[in-house]
Amino acid sequence: MPDFRNGLKERPPPPRLMHICEKFSDHVQILHLLIWDEDCLKSICQGLTNCCPNLKQLRIEGEFARSIGVDLFPFGGEGILARKPNLTVFAFTCMICKPEIQFLKDLANFIQLVVNASPNLRGVTIPWGFYPDFANSKCLESLNISLDDVDPFEIEDVQNVSKLSEMLHQVDGQLVSLCFGTVQKTDLLGPLEYYHFKNSSPIGFNLLRRMPKLRKFCNRIVEMFRSADFLQNIEMMPFLETLVIGRDLKQLRGVDAILRGICNAKMILPSVRKLELIELYDPKLLDGVATAFPNLERLEMVQRIATGLWGQVDKVEMDIMLEACRDWSGLKHFKVTLWKYPEKMGEFLQGLLQGREFFQRLTTFEIKTRHYQRMKMTRSFTEDEMALFKQLLLVWIRWTGSRLPGWV
Fold first, then answer.
1. Nearest 5°: phi and psi at 210?
2. How do the residues of the chain divide into helix, strand and coil, expressed in percent and rounded to 5?
3. What pLDDT does 268 receive?
4. Are strands 242-246 and 89-94 parallel, antiparallel or unpaired?
5. Does residue 210 contact residue 236 with C-beta atoms inside 8 Å?
6. Strands 364-369, 89-94: pairing kind
7. Rounded to an integer, what distance in angstroms lies between the CA atom of residue 22 and that of residue 178?
8. What are phi and psi of 385, to 5 degrees?
9. What is the rounded distance in angstroms from the CA atom of residue 254 to the CA atom of residue 316?
């Protein structure tokens, strides 16, 4: 279907989904649909009922901004979808999370219909505020609960802790990956400046029992959960290998609070091999939690927000960051992703030179930016910056395991 997410006011003409599905029915294995509102789900239900028996992946994205009710099936229809035994991936994404979405039973019913018709689902992405019944999803391994462009107070309106706990309890013994946050994009959430997350109440949420198979836990919205609950839930994941902790707003320091809590509680997480920290404000905290991850092999840090708590432009203190990682003796891979290279390039290069003893013992050391191509800007080095850069190049030449995209 066409993508109508760019502000189209009038309802688009009915798409010819059935024509396409009928013509290529047996050949369709991946179906990715961008839709305007839930009225389009009628055509999708019809297509899934009568066509695409070999479907393996179903991905649906939409704003659902009209918030209207719709009958998914014709009057007198059976009200179920044809079984899809080959369907292993199902992703249903609401691009805008609104409180009224939770009251649209049609969206919840559609998600449940697909889950019921697909007994072999392995990976599922659902919007925040929806809690399908996974009692018969015995193969489910990956669950992503996603949201976009959301006001924190709206999150409070659609959250239901008891239903969330009940849903996770159905699959806590089989999940390998559990993620909260924006998972369909590489960037973080995009909240507006007038959102006041600090005035909202964090959600109290505790896992009911251990998750013995869980290997990856990703929480990119740490402000939504109480820090103490987060630490308690981590203890319910005894064999966790990948931990991703992130925050989306510059007004709070949720990642810092979690790391500080890990340090104060003297937690030991020996199974974790990869740690990704998104928007850590104080890199000095890395030194204190080194003992908590004694077997860590890969560390990734993402610094997307370029301003500090009061709007000033922060410098990237590479010397402090590298010095704080000095005690991570088992670390082999270190990656830093910046929103853009800092204005004070001389201090940035000097910090890299001061930390060369640390990164020279690594297998890989990568620095990259997330600047979009159209936003990239270039400037010339000053004489002092060029002198530092030449020194750094000599270090890179002696140590071939590193790379600086765009520089070398």
1. -65, 155
2. 30, 15, 50
3. 93
4. unpaired
5. yes
6. unpaired
7. 36
8. -65, -40
9. 19
How far is residue 167 CA from its own chain's centroid? 20
Separation CA 123–CA 177 (nearest Å) = 9
Residue 94 Cα to chain centre, angstroms: 15
**In Å, what is the CA distance from 75 to each residue of 16, 42, 46, 138, 223?**
21, 12, 13, 32, 45
**Alpha-carbon distance 408 to 404, whole Å?**
6
Mean pLDDT of the chain: 77
What pLDDT digit, counting tens, does each position of 46-70 carry?
Answer: 888 888 889 999 999 887 765 556 6
402-403 and 30-35 strand pairing: unpaired
CA–CA distance, 93 with 146 (Å, rounded to integer): 7
CA-to-CA dists, residue 115 to 109, 183, 190, angstroms: 10, 20, 29
Out of 2.50.20, 3.80.10, 3.30.70, 3.40.190, which CATH number does the structure's domain 17-403 have? Answer: 3.80.10
Domain spans in the chain, listed from the N-terminal domain onward: 17-403
Give, in order, the Cα–Cα distances in Å from 66 to each of 69, 72, 110, 257: 9, 16, 17, 39
Task: Report how far residue 103's alpha carbon sits from residue 243's, in angstroms, rounded to the nearest whole number.
Answer: 33
Q: Please tell me the distance from the alpha carbon of residue 331 to that of residue 316, in angstroms, as a whole number.
A: 21
Q: Are 372 and 340 a contacting pair, CB within 8 Å?
A: no
Q: Which residue has the tokens 């919840």?
A: 108
In whole angstroms, give the CA distance from residue 289 to residue 267.
9
Beta-carbon neighbour count of residue 85 at 10 Å? 12
Burial 128-165 (b: 16+ CB within 10 A, else e): bbbbbebeebeebbbbbbbbbbbbbebbeebeeeeebe
Decide: helix, strand or coil at residue 109.
helix
**287 or 142, greater pLDDT:** 142
- For residue 211, give the 3-state DSSP assignment: coil
